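User: Just a sanity check before I run the rest of the batch. Below are the structure tokens for the first item. I only need the designed sequence back.
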């Protein structure tokens, strides 16, 4: 997903969702990852969210963080966001990358380089598969450790052996590692001049951007929300 056109004003619940997408087509991926199907006519963001069981404030927080390219959110807005809804969005994003985007990109990449140098093609195969394995580990940790921790937190279980700080300290930006693969293809792989390789390169650029914004939402929206929940629960336990 490319960064949407930079806006200086946020969308609100009364914005027509179809108009939003027609203006910022990259937000299609955001809507899909919230589990919202197409075919919503001229309904507003709030109407569509309510019809699909999606928290309106959470969707707007994600959309506005992307379209304004901000990296902060007010304490007041944080309190209006549903951690459960945001986790569902992040989990669907993981499913998209791991089960759809990266496997399809692998097939296109391997097809594009199969007629070139066997040695370089083998290097590209190994590099890509190693990268995908890293993405699986990165997102697997979140699915298996982080999100279950947050679900326990939301039930009032304050885990003294873990906190969001631990996740924050180890959260690497996996999208940056695609740069090496792009450099190999651009600088060292001699293609036949057809569209296959340039199309794959374009997909690598968009995947890199999509992963970057995915991590941005985790760092700048998800982490602050969970910190706020932790602090509230800890304060409640101290006064219990």
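Assistant: Here's the designed sequence for the first item:
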């Amino acid at each position: 997903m490319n960064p949407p056109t930079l806006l200086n004003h946020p969308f609100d619940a009364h914005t027509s969702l179809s108009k939003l997408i027609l203006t910022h087509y990259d937000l299609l991926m955001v809507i899909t990852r919230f589990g919202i199907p197409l075919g919503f006519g001229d309904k507003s963001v709030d109407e569509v969210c309510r019809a699909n069981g999606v928290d309106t404030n959470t969707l707007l927080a994600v959309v506005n963080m992307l379209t304004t390219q901000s990296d902060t959110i007010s304490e007041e807005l944080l309190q209006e966001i549903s951690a459960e809804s945001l986790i569902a969005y992040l989990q669907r994003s993981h499913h998209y990358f791991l089960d759809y985007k990266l496997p399809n990109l692998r097939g296109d990449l391997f097809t594009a380089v199969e007629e070139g140098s066997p040695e370089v093609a083998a290097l590209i195969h190994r590099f890509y598969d190693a990268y995908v394995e890293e993405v699986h580990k990165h997102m697997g940790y979140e699915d298996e450790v982080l999100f279950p921790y947050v679900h326990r937190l939301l039930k009032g279980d304050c885990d003294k052996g873990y906190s969001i700080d631990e996740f924050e300290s180890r959260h690497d930006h996996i999208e940056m590692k695609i740069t090496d693969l792009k450099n190999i293809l651009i600088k060292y792989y001699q293609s036949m001049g057809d569209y296959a390789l340039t199309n794959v390169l374009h997909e690598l650029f968009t995947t890199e951007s999509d992963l970057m914004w995915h991590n941005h939402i985790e760092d700048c929206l998800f982490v602050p929300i969970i910190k706020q929940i932790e602090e509230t629960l800890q304060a409640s336990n101290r006064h219990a």
